[in-house]
Protein 1
Amino acid sequence: MSKKQFKTESKKLLDLMIHSIYTHREIFLRELISNASDAIDKRYYAAMQRGETGVDKSQFEIRLEPNKAERTLSIIDNGCGMSASELEQNLGTIAKSGTQAFRAEHENAEDIDIIGKFGVGFYAAFMVAKKVTVYSHKEGEEAAVWESEGEDGYTVKPASYEPIGTKIVLTLKDDGEEESYGEFLEAFRLESLVKKYSDYVRYPIRMQVERSRKKKDSDEYETFVEDRTLNSQVPLWRKNRNEISKEEYARFYRDAFHAYEDPASTLHINTEGMLSYTALLFIPKNAPFDFNTKEYKRGLKLYANGVMIMEHCEELLPEYFNFVQGLVDSPDLSLNISRELLQHDRQLSAIANNLKKKILSELLRMQREDREAYNEFYKAFGRTLKFGVYDKFGANKDFLKDTLMFYSRKEEKPITLKEYVDAMPEAQKAIYYAAGDTLAQVKKLPQAERVADMGYDILCLTEDVDEFALRILESYQEKPFKSVSDPDLDLNTDEEKKAMEQRAEEAKPLLARIKAALGDSVRDVKLTDRLKNTAAFLSGGEGMSVEMFKVLRSMPNGASLPMTFTLELNPDHPVYAKLKDLDDETLKEYAKLLLAQAKLVAGLPLDDPAAFAEAVLKLM
C-alpha cells in the first residue's frame, strides 16, 4: 500500500507536537497509557450498552514491553481497538480525537471518566521514536496496522494481529551526545514514570521485570522474571473518608511527599456540582529542609481523573499557604493541548478560593481544639502567615489575622489577638506591643515599665516581620496597636498630663543644651514619664520605630538610611538631676554617654565603641 501524506496543516502541527508543545519528553508514556486506559473504558462501556453484564473488568490491563535488543518499547491494551478506517481517521489526521467522536456517538458517555480530549497525545510518541507502529483489532473488524516515521506520511494496511485491542510499538531514536533515548528501555525508569504520572490509572499497568533471589539451600543468587503491576490503581483520595484510617493518611503523606513524620492535620475534600473535584491536603508539623530556599517548590499535585498533569500547581495555593502539601483531582479542569499546563480560568480560581477557605478553617480549628499541635505548627510556619498579612499592602490581612499569635508578657506563652483583647481590662484602650531581637531583651525594655505597671499585657515581637504585620493590621476588634515606644501612649490622667507639661516647660533650657551637644545624632530631646529605673531611651519618629529602622537598615541599600531618633529622659532619675548643674563641656560628655547607653539598650550599634569605653573609664 502506498504511503499517505499528512495534510499540510497536520505536518506543521506534528512538527509543533514534537518540538514545542511538550516540555518534557517523558510525557509520551503518560499520554500513551492514558489513551490505552480510554480505549479500555470505551470497550467496557460499549459492552454495558449492549447489555453484556458478564464482562469481567479484572481481565482488562495495559502492558509495557521494552526490548533492548530491537530497541523498541511496546504499549499494549485490550481495549476497544480500531478498524483500518478508524486508524486513518484518528491517527492520520492530527488533532482528531477518537474520544470526542466516541462521546458524540454515545450521548451518555459523559458519565464515564475518559481522559483524552484533544487527539494530540498520541503524537508525543514521536518525541522519542523514529518510527511508530500501531497494530489494532476492533471486535467484528479486520485487524490493521498504521505505521509512520513522522512528517513524511503514514501507511495503513491489513495485519494479522489477533487480540482485541491495540499494540503501539515505538522504535526509539538513536542516542546522541546530549540525549539518551535508551533510558526508556530500562525497567526502573519505566516504573518510575508510571509511578509519577499514571499511578492511579484504574487498570493495572503490568511489565515483566527481572529480579534476583537467593537459590534454595545456597548462598548463590539467581535471576528470575516477575510479572509486576506497576501502578496502585485506586487513589486513596477516591475512597470514602470513613473507610480511611489516620494511619493510612499518614503513610500516604510520608510516601507521596517524602516526609519523615506524620502531618499535623489532614483535609480530605470532596466537592460535586458545577465544579467537581477531590482534594487531599496535608498541613505539616515542621518545615522541610529546603523550605526557606529558592529550591523549594510550592503548589499542589494536579490530577485529571487520576492522571498527574502537574507536580507543582502554584495557582492552587496562595503564597501564604505555601507550606501545605497535597493534591487535587478533577475531571473538569480546562487543560492546554499538551495537558502539561493549566489554562487560567474561573474553574481553577474557584477551586483555589475554596481550598484557601478550607485551609484557614482547619488552622483555626487546630488553634481552638488542639493548641499544642497548632503551637508546633506555628513555630515552623507562623512567619509565613505574618508575611501573608503584610504582603500586597495588607490585601489578605483580614483573612489571616486570626491565625496570628504573639508571645504574651503576662501569660508567658503565645496567644492570639482575640485572646489578648478578650483579657483586656475595661479601661485599656489599645493593644500594646514591644519589639526586640530576643524575648529576654523585649522583657527588659525600660519603656515597657509604665504599661506593665498599669496591669496591661504586652505582646513581645522578636521577628523582623512582626511589627510590619501589626502596622498593616492597624487594629483588631477596633483596638489600635500601639508600641510601648510610641510618643503618645495616652496613659496619663489630665492632672498627670498637666504636671508633665509643666515639667517639660521648665526643662526647655536644659533640653536645648543637650540637643545642641548631640547635634544631628538625635532628632529631638524631651522628657518622658514612662521610665522608672532607667535614665533614658530612644524612641522613633514619623511612623518608624527603632526596631523597624533596624530591619530596614539591614536590607540592601539600607545603610544609607539616616539614624535619627528622639532621646527621652527620665526626670525622676538621679542622673537627670545632676545634668542641671554641669557646664557645657561636661554636659556634652554626659549627653553622649546617655545616648550611647540608650543605643545599647535598643540593640543599636555605637558609632565609636572605643570612645564610649574611654568615656566610661574616665567617669569611673
Note: The first helix runs from residue 8 to 21.
Protein 2
Amino acid sequence: MKQFKTESKRILDLMVNSIYTNKEIFLRELISNASDAIDKIKFLSLTDNGAVKDFKITLTPNQEERTLTIQDNGIGMTEEELEKNLGTIASSGTLAFKKQNEGKTDGELIGQFGVGFYSAFMVAEKIQVYTKAYKSETGYVWESSGASGYQITECDLQEVGTKIVLYLKPDDEDCKYSEFLQEYKLMSLVKQYSDYIRYPIQMMVTHSKLKEGCPQDKPEYESVSELDTLNSMVPLWKKPKSQVNTEELNTFYKSEFHDYLDPLKGVYAKIEGAVTYDSILYFPSKAPFDYYSKDYKKGLKLYCNGVMIMEKCEELLPDYFGFVKGVVDSADLSLNISREILQQSRQVKAIAQGIEKKISQELKKMLEEDRETYDKLFSEFGLSIKFGAYAGFGMNKDKLKDLLLFYSSKKQKLVTLKEYVEELPEGQEFIYYASGESYEKISALPQIEKAKEKGVEILFFKDGVDEFVAKILDSYEGKKFKSVSEADFSLDGEVEKEQLKKTSEEHKELLEEIKKILDGKVKDVTLTSNLKSYPVCLISGGELSIEMEKVLNAMPNSENKVQAEKILQISADHPILQKLKTLKETDMESLKKYALVLYESARLLEGLSLDDASSFVANLTQII
C-alpha cells in the first residue's frame, strides 16, 4: 500500500469536505475526465488507423453490489501516468498550493491540479480505476479507500480505455447514496450537467413494453432493458444559424427554461476573438411572477466546452437586462478549483460586455423594425430598464435612454424620447410630463386640462421610478424635462403672463390671508391660469415633487417620512376667486372654512390623504 503525502491527505480531505458544495457533481467531473481522454485518442485517430473510432462513455449501476461504473474508450493511462495523475494530489503540495494562489484568482487552479477525480470520494468509500493506455501491452488497476493510501497493480485488460468503479458509501442522514444507483437519477444528472458532452453517454435503461402476441382488449406489459444514449451531444448553439429554424429555437427555450409560452425573440451570438463563446439569448414574452421581487435570481446558463458549470451565472447580465434568459458556452473561462464558481476574470468581464452589447443592439433593432413586439417586451420589462437608467446615479443612462418608452397624451400610445423631441413644435424648449398612479388619474389632473385642450403633448409618468429617471436624465437632446406640477410651468404667452401678474397683485392680500390660514400646510398660495374647470390644485414648490413624496413614503421601512413643499394654486379664471374675495371682506370665519376645504380637495385630486377628515366633512357640510 502506497501512502499519499501528508499534504495530499489534507488536500483530499479538503476536496471531499470543503471545496465541492454539491455531492452529485462527482458524475459531471468523471464524465468530463472521460470526455477529455476520448478527445486525446480522437486526435490520434485522425492520422492513425489503429485508434478507436466508436467513441463512447458507459454508465453501469449495480444496486446489489452498490457500485457505479463509469467507462470510456479514451486514451487510457500508463503506470507512470496513474502514479502522477492519481497517486499525487496537487503535486506541488499544500505550501506551494497556497503560495501559487496568493493574490491570484482560483481560476488558475483547474488546469494545473487534477482534483476533479477526487470528488468521487464524496460518495464512494472505495474506488478502483482499471486502465490500459493506447499502444500499451499492460493494463493496471489503481485502488484507494481515501486518505489511507492507494495501490497500483497489473491486470489483464483487453481494451484500451479507463473504467472507474465506485463502491458507494452506506446511506446516512446527510445523503441517500443509493440514489446514485437509480436509473432516473443518473439520467437526470447527465441531462443537467453533461447533456452536451460530444460523445454518447450510454446506459442500460428499463422500459415498459407491450408483450408480443397479447390480445388488444387485455394488454400486458413487460420490462425490457435497452441501451440508451442519455445525452443529446450537439448543443443547439453549436449548429450554424442557417440550420436552426424558429420552431427549434422556441422548443429549446420552452424545454430549457420551463416556460409554456414562446419567447418574443431568440438571438444567436457567436463571438470569436480574444474571448470566444457561443450563446443563444431569449427575450421572454411574460415576466416571471417573482421578477420584480428580491427573490428573483437573474443569470444565464453557463457551459464550458458543453459541460454545465452554473445554472444561473449572474455576472453575465446587468440587472436592467435581468429578464434575458439563455445559454453561454466558452472554452476560455477561468474557473475555480471545483468548477462551481466563476471568477471575476478578464475573460468573464469580456463575455459579459459582449452579451450586454448584443442585447442592446437587438433591443434597438426590435424597437426600430418590430415596434409591436418591442412594446410587448417593454410592457413586461420596461420597469427594469427604467431602474437601470436611474441606478448608480445614472451611470448607465446614456446606454438606456433610447430604449425608454412613455405614454403620450397626444398619440395615446407609448413613444420614445426621440420621437417626442422630433415632433416638438417650434419654440417649445421643454419635455413636459405629468405624474400619477395610472394613466386615467394623470389624464384627470387639473394641471393638464388646459394643456390637453391646446394640443400640447405631455408624457404620462405612472411608474414610481419615472420622475426619478427624468431627474437623473435632466434633458434629452438639449430639451429639459419639466413637470406640469412645477411652480414655473406655464403655457401662456407674454400678454397672458402679464395679465396673471396683474390679477395676482390685485389679490395679494387675499392670497396672504389664505396662506396664514393654511400655515404649515403649504409653502405658498398663488394664482394660476393653467386650470380650466377646476378651482384649485396643488403643485410642488421644491426639487421633491408630490409624486416623489408618495413613492418614497410608500417604500418598506421608510420610517422618516419626507414632505414635498406644496403650493396651493387658485384658478384666476374660476368664480371661486371672487367668492373668496367677498368672504375676506364680509366673513373671515367662512373664508377659513372655504380655504381648508379647497386645500383638502386639492390633496384628494393629487392622490394624497386628507389631513383632517372630520374637519373637512364638518366644513364642507356647513358650506353646503
Note: DSSP finds 19 helices and 22 strands in the chain.
